[in-house]
Backbone:
């Protein structure tokens, strides 16, 4: 059976709606209104899809120093997978409204953090699904058969950095190129709607995740994405990239884009800006430095 590990089309998903080896997860979410995603799910979702909430399923408990969306514990995420009926042989498909930013978080958790290869994002999200005249339903899926799926030994080794490791990068002790997935105004520090401090981690380059997408919110071609990231790398190896964003969500979009472009799996700082600025002793940069 082919294993899909980056993007899938609406037509391919439609052909597998009744395939018991496929699990579809609706990841719609709104940062400013956290209940909107679940409400939208109840109003209409892909047949058989289950709802994966960013804060209940794809994040752990927040602390004063964790950032806004810390990683769940392996034990908690294993229970989440069990509840969704996901096992080692399951093909998982994640989608959200259109940009795939929340679906990319689930993709990263499974593909990188859990080492599960058969996980893909619905290209273009729910908007592309509806544009293809595929059905929506308000019916709730049946309760899945629980599957035991502990985190594989060695999963995510080198795939993510903690706060101390990022501090070492900023001090120049670890050769990494920080790439900030937030929009330009937040990177420059001219605005900050979500976190208490504006700006970026010193030395970071800015690459908003939206640049991975065409106007219809499907991903650009691997060739186009590769050209973009080669320009950012400027001769450095892709293995030195370290992605971050506001809280470890939209940066996953850049990890997926680089995977699609043939660079392999690049590293993520899950705590991201919200964890970085939780410690007032850490340095902050503003303006166009290192753009």
Residues:
């Amino acid at each position: 059976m082919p294993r899909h590990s980056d993007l899938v089309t609406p037509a391919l998903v439609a052909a597998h709606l009744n395939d018991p080896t496929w699990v579809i997860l609706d990841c719609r979410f709104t940062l400013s209104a956290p209940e909107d995603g679940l409400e939208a799910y109840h109003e209409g979702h892909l047949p058989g899809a289950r709802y994966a909430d960013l804060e209940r399923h794809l994040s752990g408990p927040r602390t004063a120093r964790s950032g806004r969306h810390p990683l769940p514990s392996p034990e908690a995420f294993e229970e989440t997978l069990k509840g969704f009926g996901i096992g080692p042989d399951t093909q998982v498909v994640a989608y959200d409204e259109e940009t795939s930013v929340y679906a990319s978080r689930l993709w990263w958790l499974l593909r990188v953090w859990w080492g599960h290869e058969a996980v893909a994002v619905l290209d273009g999200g729910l908007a592309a699904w509806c544009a293809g005249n595929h059905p929506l339903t308000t019916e709730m899926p049946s309760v899945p058969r629980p599957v035991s799926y502990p985190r594989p030994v060695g999963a995510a080794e080198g795939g993510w950095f903690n706060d101390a490791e990022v501090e070492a990068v900023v001090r120049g002790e670890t050769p990494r190129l920080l790439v900030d997935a937030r929009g330009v105004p937040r990177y420059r520090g001219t605005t900050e709607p979500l976190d208490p401090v504006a700006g970026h981690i010193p030395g970071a380059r800015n690459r908003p995740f939206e640049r991975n997408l065409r106007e219809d919110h499907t991903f650009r071609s691997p060739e186009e994405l590769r050209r973009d990231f080669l320009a950012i790398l400027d001769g450095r190896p892709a293995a030195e990239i370290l992605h971050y964003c506001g809280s470890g969500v939209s940066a996953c979009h850049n990890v997926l884009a680089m995977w699609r472009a043939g660079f392999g799996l690049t590293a993520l700082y899950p705590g991201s800006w919200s964890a970085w600025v939780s410690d007032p002793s850490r340095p902050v940069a503003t303006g166009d430095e290192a753009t």
